[in-house]
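Pipeline run #58 for the internal structure catalog. This entry was flagged by the ingest filter as a single-chain record with no existing model, so it goes straight to prediction. Upstream metadata was stripped on purpose; only the residue string is passed forward. Reviewer on rotation: M.T. Logging verbosity set to normal.
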Amino acid sequence: MTRWVKGGILENRFEADRVAQALKEATIPFLIKTFEDTAYDGLYVLQKGWGMVLVPDHFQEEAEKIVAEVKKTFKEEGRDEMEESG
């Protein structure tokens, strides 16, 4: 039986889409669990992030590396856009 573990925290839907694409390309099975909750109007998003990616435990290390790389790229692109507009 495969145990699913946290592969990383996602800050927003756009980051989640990019992580999903990267994990698909790496043929890593995954689930994305959002922390959005309509009953609490997204209260937990501020505390926990937008969501998390879950992967089978034997893919955890590889998934964490992919999530970190996507986050790094995502932040660099945001910085570039701010410099161009400012």
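catalog note: The chain has one domain: 4-85.
catalog note: The chain has a mean pLDDT of 84.
status: ready for reviewer M.T.
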